[in-house]
Amino acid sequence: MQGDRQRALIIAETAAFIGLIAIGSWISIPFLPVPLTLQTMFVLLAAMVMKRYAVIPATLFILFGALNLPVFHNGTSGIGVLLGPTGGYLIGFIPAAFFAGLAYEKRSLAWNIAGICAAEAFIYTIGAGWLAFSTGMSLLQATVIGVLPFLPGDAVKAYAAHAIAKRVPSRDMIQPGDEINGGENMP
User: Fold this and answer.
1) Is 185 within the bounds of a domain?
2) Per residue in 63-109, pLDDT tens?
3) Distance (Å, rounded) from C-alpha 36 to C-alpha 154?
4) How much is the pTM?
5) CB 41 within 8 A of CB 158
6) What's the DSSP call for residue 169?
7) What is the domain-level CATH number for residue 19?
């Protein structure tokens, strides 16, 4: 029975985080060539809550967008977005969620911070690399345009995600029979 509960929790969290990442894509400040959105905050939050399983909503988010569901920034979708200048940043969500999730499995602030930094590094490295390749600019130009302006905002979003995650009960704190759903026990 415990395995079914764990699976149900992963499915529910996956659906919730796909929705949150999609909502975060609509909260957008136009920058050229890459907009500033709240997507990365929700990818990091997924990693903090779901641990290694955060790779599931990150991957499905990319898949849904590639299948023309309007989940990317400002309701865009399709393979064209992934092949455009912002595609690398979106693809970077997958390894970012996985490695930050692994780091959050450790109960150490140092590991958590390292995981956040690694996640951001994956997003920036893949994003700036693809930005340079897709636009023909140099890697230095892509870094100056597609990384440096976003560092302060991403630091604030990472801190916000960490603060929110501290308020979410961890999986190992929830036991079968715990009261949930307004005080009703799960069968």
Assistant:
1) no
2) 999 999 999 988 999 999 999 999 999 999 999 999 999 999 998 99
3) 9
4) 0.87
5) yes
6) P
7) 1.10.1760.20
Q: Output the six-digit token pair for 165.
A: 């995650």
End-to-end Cα distance, the chain: 10
Question: Which amino acid, residue 179?
Answer: E
| Tokens linked to 58 | 């990150």
Question: Are 80 and 88 a contacting pair, CB within 8 Å?
Answer: no
Residues, the chain: 187
Mean pLDDT of 41-62: 97
Whether 183 is in a domain gets the answer no
Residue 177 lies in a domain: no
Token pair recorded at residue 83: 């092949």
pLDDT digits (tens, 9 = 90+) for 136-151: 999 999 999 999 999 9
CA proximity to 92, closest of 64, 121, 51, 66: 121
**Token pair of 63 as six digits:** 């898949």
Q: What is the number of structural domains in the chain? A: 1
Predicted confidence band of residue 33 (pLDDT cuts 50, 70, 90): low
SS3 assignment, position 41: helix
